[in-house]
Amino acid sequence: MKKITNLVVGIVLLIFFIGCNKKIEHRGKINFTSSIKIDSIVIDASNTSGRGNFYINDTIITFADRYYLTFYDFNANTGKLISKHFGKGHGPNELSSFLFAYPDSKHNRTFILDESNFLYSFDSTLELIKHNVIDFGWEDNMNNSSDFNNPKNYNVMELVSFGVDYTYINDSILMIPVNVIHRKTSKNGFVNSKEYDEGHIFGLLNLNSMKVEKVFGKYPFIYKNKSVPHLENFRYSMNKDIIYVNHAIDSLIYVYKYPDKLLYTFGYECNNVNRDYTITRKTNADNAFYKDIKECRLNSGLNYIPQVNYLIRTYMINIDSGESGLQIYKDNDLIGDFKMPAFYIFLGYYDNFYYGVRFKPIETMNTTKFIFYKFAIR
Fold this sequence. Notes:
Helices cover 11% and strands 42% of the residues. By secondary structure, it is mainly beta. It has a single domain, classed as CATH 2.120.10.30. It is globular. The relative contact order is 0.14.
């Protein structure tokens, strides 16, 4: 009986070992078959502060101005200012502050987040809805700081200068990207050794209660070998129940079946890259952060285009100079890798054209200028 028991235990351990070491399939190949030609329009935006973020809906590019708290709608093809709305104040359709504004285009609703994690939203009626503060349960003073399944150890994702994605799962549940709060989960100023095994990257926000009900999603393997706690941001894009995820420091794109079943990876390293990030387990790594964003390349955007089955990935080669690039994938194959104009971010697709902007305005003492770009893929 003892021999049989030992045999069973051995088989179980062997199965566990094989399962834990199963290599995830990497799909796709490099097959450069595409070309692009970029057109640009320079827009006089001197009536804006130049501080904010851009997003697109069809051929309307909106600039959400963080200083004036006003949204400026431009025609993406002509650069003409079509309308502006909202403003600074405490009235029904006014804002007191915000950090960023980005849409869930499938539901024609734009979400706005302020410095206090207060969430607003509006749709095509331009009626501003004031939801409330996103509740992660921080008032819960339990000492279980190593519980990475507890939303109280998370906050909304930081480093969203290139963009952020909020996605409806159903009428009341919103999927949001989150980051671990290191000061809650770490001891002695070092990243908790369990974070990259047990930590999560998404939260489910109930818009009725404003509580984050669950955290899920996984860090990629690269963080286990390359601890870079100062660069844990990522971008994702969804196609029905498939989630594409690309982390700032990783050449791979991870494909999950919602919520977090890893199916496979694809993706190839971009041109002129420097991945020599500062490896550290210190949670206060400001010096490493400023060094790395100046010297190293970061992935900046990820957009799946269902109309043409393309996935667009953008990246920054150098933050100071704004040197940028863009990759195009189709059926997991890399079909194009292009140098883009300085400080380029991709916004979206409409009627056979792909739109983007220079996210850092061109400023002089008297003028502020935006640049809009569009291209077709051949």
